[in-house]
Design a protein that fits this description.
alpha+beta; 12 strands; 8 helices
Length: 444
């Protein structure tokens, strides 16, 4: 009897071992047969449930191969409006600045439509590659949103527990000029291209062409129903359905498991390449405006959004970039009453609704870069100890609140000592694509 049991355990061990070998062989075979192109240009990381009949995201990656021509005055009127980037907000909201901003918002909202819980993209707009491979952060299948980062619930509900987190998901689209740059940067095989004669230190397609426009919709997920009535200045928010993590960030186990859940599209960030700006960029941010939500169901999402402001520079001659006693008034940020109602960035600079009062849109984005480690890492940190801290002048603030312009490098401390960062010209989401490429790409 003992001998029979021993033989049985031995045979089961062989079967188990052979099963493991076969499984690994199958996985290895899959790894060698899948191509970088298939990984780079996947629609989603999800498996779409059988019988699902609601919106399904399709990646837009047929990037233009020829330059679209100079932006026309008819379609890109803001580039032809005579605004004063030198005086900026010092001269106030002039009719020129008002028309400038309104034409950008109208352009985006006419091409990236958000009706009845879904996007409708018209014209030549595109999405980034390599953002549907990471099992945890990759694009979900309903609206192409990807997990960005966690935010403390008390950012929206002041009296919420400090350790309670919600998730931020984002859908990002770029227009034809951004698509042209992506097409030069990424080959059809899904590999990264560099400019010739730069020793692989400058990406092909950069700087982003004049007229590039990017639109990013920020969704808040894992927000429990009991907290909805307590949202600060965000009462009665519209909701869409996305396939997001079942568990909120900060849960004991970090699980990839997802399910269809309500999320709240609360912010729209727009970045525009305008060569007249000292940084080459203008960033606008809009937010859900509870005073505009007067009907039970929102058909057009943009009807309940309002501008919080725009920014085109970091005001490097204003505190805390310089000591307070020699500080000049801010003039590179324009804020609306809605921004002051919500919050402002450092010392009155513009920050979007999921940023903090210690940052600025331009300050965060100018650090966009990577170093060629395996996998790639950020060249510079998005935050640092003592950022915008009250009190004595901190020289580190003069790096973060500076104005750099591609290919000039950001002057802050290196995130990886000894590694020279490669600039991404203010586009942080491009780092996420490069990180995924460096981590998940296969050897041909």
């Amino acid at each position: 009897m003992l001998l029979r049991k021993t033989i049985l355990k031995y045979m089961l061990g062989i079967v188990s071992f052979m099963g493991l070998v076969l499984l690994n062989a199958a996985y290895a075979d899959q790894k060698t047969t899948i191509t970088n192109a298939e990984l780079a240009y996947r629609d989603t990381v999800d498996v779409i449930p059988s019988g699902y009949k609601d919106p399904i995201f399709k990646m837009l990656s047929d990037y233009p191969v020829t330059y679209p021509g100079n932006p026309s005055k008819e379609e890109y009127p803001w580039l032809y409006i005579n605004v004063d980037f030198d005086k900026g907000a010092e001269a106030g909201w002039t009719p020129q600045w008002k028309t400038y901003v309104e034409s950008i918002v109208q352009y985006v909202q006419s091409h990236v439509k958000a009706n009845s819980g879904d996007f409708e993209i018209t014209g030549d707009w595109y999405t980034f590659p390599w953002l549907a491979v990471d099992p945890y952060a990759g694009r979900e299948f309903t609206h192409g949103a990807r997990y960005s980062f966690p935010v403390g619930l008390n950012h929206f509900v002041p009296d919420a527990p400090k350790n309670k987190m919600v998730s931020v998901w984002a859908s990002t689209y770029v227009n034809v000029y951004g698509g042209y740059a992506l097409g030069k940067m990424w080959s059809k095989k899904g590999t990264l291209n560099y400019q010739p004669d730069t020793n692989d230190q400058q990406l092909a397609g950069l700087p982003w062409p004049n007229g590039t426009v990017m639109a990013k919709v920020n969704f808040i997920g894992n927000l429990e129903d009991k907290y909805l009535p307590k949202l600060n200045h965000l009462h009665n928010p519209p909701h869409w359905n996305l396939n997001i993590h079942k568990e909120a960030p900060g849960a004991p186990s970090k699980s990839d498991n997802r399910s269809i859940q309500p999320v709240y599209p609360l912010g729209l960030d727009i970045s525009v390449r305008d060569d007249r700006s000292p940084t080459g960029w203008v960033f606008l941010t809009l937010k859900y405006d509870e005073t505009k939500h007067t009907t039970e169901r929102v058909q057009n999402l943009w009807d309940v959004f309002s501008l919080t402001g725009f920014i085109y520079g970091n005001d490097p001659f204003t505190y805390p970039s310089v000591p307070e006693e020699v500080s000049s008034p801010l003039h590179q940020s324009f804020l609306t009453a809605l921004s002051y109602k919500w919050h402002t960035g450092c010392n009155g600079r513009l920050e979007n609704m999921i940023g903090t009062a210690k940052q600025s849109c331009i300050g965060c984005h100018q650090t966009a870069s990577f170093v060629k480690t395996s996998p790639a890492q950020r060249g510079y940190n998005l935050m640092y100890q003592g950022i915008c801290a009250p009190g004595a002048f901190d020289p580190a603030n003069s790096f973060y609140f500076d104005n750099t312009r591609y290919p000039e490098p950001y002057r802050g401390p290196l995130a990886v000592p000894g590694q020279k960062p490669i600039s991404l010209d203010y586009v942080v989401v491009l780092y996420d694509a490069i990180f995924a490429y460096s981590k998940y790409s296969v050897v041909p």
